[in-house]
Amino acid sequence: MALVPPLGSVVVADWHRCKDSKEYFSKILQKKRRKNFGLLESPVMPPHVAVDTVHYKIFISGKSGVGKTALAARLAGLNIPNMHYETTGIETTVVYWPVKLKDSGRVLFFRLQLWDCGENALRRFDHLLPSCKEQVDAVLFLFSFTDRTSFDDLSNQMAKWTETSGRHVVKLVVGTKFDLFMHCDVAESDVRHFQETSGSPVLRTGGEVSDGLGDVAPLLNCLAENLWHQDCVTAGSTSHYSHQETGTVL
Ligand SMILES: Nc1nc2c(ncn2[C@@H]2O[C@H](COP(=O)(O)OP(=O)(O)O)[C@@H](O)[C@H]2O)c(=O)[nH]1
Ligand SMILES: [Mg+2]
User: Fold this and answer.
1) For the whole model, what pTM was predicted?
2) Which one of 75, 134, 139, 152 counts the least CB within 10 Å of its CB?
3) Does ligand 1 come within 6 angstroms of the Cβ of 93?
4) Is 78 helix (H, G, I), strand (E, B) or coil?
5) Which atom of ligand 1 is closest in space to residue 207's alpha carbon?
């Protein structure tokens, strides 16, 4: 299993706050809000700035009501639904995120296709899970800070995603509803213990979508970092090289 890189060792953390990132982040923003990208759309850079785009498929796992659909919306900068409706099938959302690699200073656009599928639909239709699993690069395992059973079930959930056909899958754990601390059912010490024993980073999310970037940057940077690291390990290279590069965005 590829080791998890120490946080902030591969990509520049908080790059969205740096001046030199403005040119890139402006391509994923529109009137200070996140731009929505359809399946065939991508950020357009001026011709003299060549940026490679790396593509990844991410599956969001977790029981009904844990916050899968809300997380996909949050990461894309969309409004979070107030009401809970069970997602009826597979919904995909495209998120672009510019990243600066620490060692080379190279900038990449990460294109993350998030796959969100309702638990009931997964249970009822056998063909959905295989298509979610096909060519998947990472899984976000969600638990809710307000639901102890979702936390206790994590190891069980993660065991179902052991390596398939030699392909390594990045696994990150995300605790949702961190804002509802009055109803918190999962102690900080339990989270720490889980992190130490599983070796998986645990990220936290919750609350209103504030400025659109600072809110999601830790999660997206952590995801990008782990995906890139995995590619480097797979490519057997010490320099950070990706086999998934898909050409230059002009
Ligand atoms: N306060 C708060 N509510 C959340 C959060 N994430 C999700 N919710 C709410 O929890 C409910 C279920 O979320 P949803 O994303 O639809 O769950 P799903 O079944 O896993 O897709 C919805 O009413 C959301 O508004 C969060 O981080 N904080
Ligand atoms: Mg849903």
Assistant:
1) 0.90
2) 134
3) no
4) coil
5) 28
Calpha distance 168→88 (Å, rounded): 29
From residue 216, how far is each of 177, 206, 209, 222, 239 by CA, in Å?
A: 14, 10, 9, 10, 27
Over residues 85-117, the pLDDT tens digits come to 888 889 999 999 999 999 999 999 999 999 999
Q: How far apart are CA 174 and CA 188, in angstroms?
A: 14
State the distance from the centre of ligand 1 to the C-alpha of 25, rounded, in angstroms.
Answer: 27
Contact 133, 115 (CB under 8 A): no
Cβ(64) to ligand 1 under 6 A?
yes
* 154 within 8 A of 143, measured Cβ to Cβ: yes
Q: Into which CATH architecture does domain 15-30+45-235 fall?
A: 3-Layer(aba) Sandwich (3.40)
For the chain, the structural domain boundaries read: 15-30+45-235
